[in-house]
Amino acid sequence: MIPALVFKIGIGIPAGIFAALNRNTWIDRLTIAAAVFSHAVPNFVMGFLLVIIFSVTLHWFSSGGFERPSDLVLPVLTLGTAGAAVIARFTRSAMVEVLSQPYVIAARAKGLPWRRVVITHVLPNAAVPTLTIIGLMIGSLVAGAVIVETVFSWPGVGRLLVLSVSSRDMAVVQTLLILIATSMVTANLVVDFLYGVIDPRIRVARATPAR
Prior knowledge:
The chain is mostly helical.
C-alpha cells in the first residue's frame, strides 16, 4: 500500500501540474483522457489486463504471490493507477484556478521568472485540494487493497479480510475494520494539520486576551 501511495503521488501531481501549465494543448487533452480512462477502469479489471499483458503474453512478471521484489510491480500499478488519475485531475483543476488569480497575473507583470511564480505562488495555493484527496486515499488504502490482493493472491491485509469474512472469523473482521477506520481518522487529522503548514491563511491565530 505504501509503494502504491508513492506511485499515486509521484505520477499524479507532476501529471496534473504539467497538464495545467500546458492548458488546452494536446498534452493537456492526452493527460485528461488518460486520467479519465484510468479512473473509469475498475481495479479488478485493470489487474486482469496487466496480468494478461505483462504476465501471460510478455512473461515479464508473475501473475500472483510474493516471491521476488518484481512481484510488487503489478499490484502497485493496479492499486495506484486510478488514484494517480484522480490526483492528476484535482491537481490540474486547482492549478488552472490559481493560475487565473490576480496575484499570479501581478507577479508575472512584475517580471518574476515563470518558474519562481509557479513554485512560490501557484503550487502552495493549489496544494490544499490535492492534499485533501491524498488524505482520503491514505485512509482508504486498506479497504481498496481488498480486491487487488485477492486478484494477485497477495498475502496482505485485504486478502486477510476476505478470508476472515468467508470463514466468519468475526474477531479478525472487527479488528481490521477498526484498523481501516483508525487509518481514515488519522489520515484526515494529519491533513488538517498540514493545511496550516501549506497555507498560512488557514492557521488558527492565537486568541488575544481581553483587556
